[in-house]
Amino acid sequence: MNKSNSPGAMQYLCDRFDEFADMDRERNRLIIELLRKLADSETFIKQLQLDLEDQTRSRTSYQQDARDLQDKNRNWEQLINKDSFVAVLIDGDGAKFLDGLLQDPTVGAVEAASRLKQAVKDYLEATALAYMDLPVLVRVYANLNGLAKALRLSNVIEHDDNMQVFAETFTNSRWELDFVNVGHGKENADSKLRKMLNHFMKNIQCKRVFFAGCHDNSYLHDLREHAGDERVVLVETTAAEPGFRSLNLPITRFDNKGTRAGVDAVPKAGSIPSGGAAENYIIRICYTIVPFGGKRHSVRECSIPAQDSYSTKLDEIKPKVFCNKFYLTGTCTWGDKCDKDHSTELTPAELAIHRYKARTNLCGNGPDCYDYNCYMSHHCMYGPNCTRAPNCKFAKTQWGDLHLSKEDLKPATRWTEGEDTPKNLQ
Length: 426
Description:
InterPro entries: DUF7923 (IPR057683), Znf-CCCH_tandem (IPR057654), Znf_CCCH (IPR000571). The protein has 426 residues and is of the alpha/beta class. It is built from 11 helices and 14 strands. It folds into 2 domains: 81-268, Rossmann fold (3-Layer(aba) Sandwich); 304-415, no CATH class. The protein has helices at residues 7-82, 99-102, 105-124, 144-153, 160-173, 188-202, 220-224, 242-245, 304-317, 324-329, 348-359, and strands spanning 85-91, 96-97, 136-142, 177-181, 206-212, 232-235, 251-252, 255-256, 259-260, 263-264, 287-289, 297-299, 413-414, 423-424.
């Protein structure tokens, strides 16, 4: 019997066939799985291609938009920088130009403008604006009549008109400069400065604002809004009050290699040097300082705000007037029977104004008075510069003409506070 036809052989062949059939099925499953994955991959690749094309289009669009924005930004920067400027705001009632410049108003005003502009440019040399040739807009706000009177009484200028000439020449010296007369009123200059500070800070073309008003704490509220902003530069004429230093704003003085720029303020009475000319400004009380063995220095301080408050208080007590004895010596022999006012409280600055007014009246003892506490005047306070002669009350008295010459005005004695008697200087 043939072995291949035996039942065992057939079973063997069937088993082998089943093995190969299983292998074919596994291979087919593998091929099907591979084909499915290939199809998925092709779909994914197509999606990636679509995404890539979309990203390419987007990137191209974004790049074009970016280039357009850069061009626009460059154009805006050019437009902004083309008309950029720096501003200088000066409270003319609290900061003045140097005496030497004011005394020759025509030439001094032009020199003041030049010095002020150069001082600003010197400051900008150390900033990112050094490469830009920026115009310097200067605005000085002051009560010109009050300022002129104060400077004349301080012997800084001879005539009130000198200040008017200085202001006009300063304004006309360059198109960027304005010396603005705001008229009488203690808030006029302050209000102008506050509004102009706000205006310039809102103007993106204004790169810096130099603010000369550190003598007046009333500006602190407005400056606090710009604390830490380097665009605001405080300019000292007197040492800045502590409140200004807490604002974290840059502070400068307009001094350049020892050459003083246009704006200055008078030092306090105790800081006047013993020799040489003192550069005066307006502060708040009137003194005359006579250094031993040196030249006579007049440091007149006239506070315009104090003048306003003094006038207001005087109006409130009319028809009464302030008692000279009570306010200037501390006692009044008439006491409660005095027909003059004792009740109003005067500030030190207002007392200084009242003392000045008392000095305009002639003492009953004239030049024969030896009372060192006398609050009246014994000669015309304007001396050889008096413009009222011959109608001045000191021109025709029982002692003759009480207008002293420059030689007469040389100090003969000095009485220092705290000493019992005066000392002879001649």
